[in-house]
Amino acid sequence: MRTRDLEFLNNLIRLGSVSETARVMHTTQSNASKMLKKLEDHFGFQLVERMNGRLYPTEEGRLIAEQAEASLISLRQLESRARNLREMRHGSLTVGTTPQLSREFVPEAVATFMLSHPAVATNIQTRNSRALIELVARRQIDFAIGLLSIDDPNVDCSKLFNVELMAAIEKTNPLCAKARLQPSDFHRQNFITASMLDRSRKQIEDFFDLEGAQPIERAEASLSFTRMRMVERGIGVTMVDALSVQEYRGNSIEFRPLAPALHLTVWLMKSKLQPKSKIGDAFTQLIKDRAARMMA
User: Fold this and answer.
1) Given this model, what pLDDT does residue 88 score?
2) CB-hemisphere CA count at 13 Å for 218?
3) What's the pLDDT tens digit per position in 45-94?
4) What domains does the chain contain, in order, with CATH numbers?
5) What Å distances lie between residue 218 and 77, 207, 227, CA to CA?
6) Is pTM beyond 0.70 here?
């Protein structure tokens, strides 16, 4: 397969539209449709199906798309490293992180590292925690900073810090009168839940089960800031990590701690098969130092 085929499939799954894929790839919709048919003929099965006016991957299509994305990442890394050698840069660093940590903690850490290592080229990639684990295990990224750890003999996991989960409540909600919220406070409350892929989802469900609370699930969203925006519009209450709370700049939401408290653990992950390097050691030390300051 050509690189363009991989890019087409990746864009098609991401955008869910042949016309949008054609636009971003600077081709016609007719050519894009032909590319899709050619790929499905090549693999011998259907890659996407249309539902409610949008294209969704079949199970086979999803698996192929995941491998296509991994192949694209490998190709881009190869091109990046070749460019670094050509331009006589002294090393590179690829860091994967989750959406929560990609807003401030990781960019600040990487920027600090770059200032003290100006010859090092850096690359930050944002994925969910499960995808980050796979990229580390395959050695397609140097480090991952995420909310899941893994019991894998080839992956080294170091605990960085804990992040508290807090309730986000619209200011007119009577729950704002409470200093802390217990599971029963959420019973029959309209609730905006995290995505099934979110590490916090299971902890939140277990929290409610402590007192048999049954919130009314009004919506689901993977990003904390998306859920907070829905709280602002009066859709319901939600739970978000303390990092997102610190970055909130609005004035329509009150935040309350939970009783019992809920925490997510942030991990630094790297492959044990990754060759030892001064760049990697320096970045590891910087991340751990910043995490220690956060804990303090």
Assistant:
1) 41
2) 15
3) 888 888 888 888 888 888 888 888 888 888 887 787 777 655 545 678 99
4) 3-66 (1.10.10.10), 89-160+266-295 (3.40.190.10), 162-264 (3.40.190.10)
5) 41, 18, 11
6) no
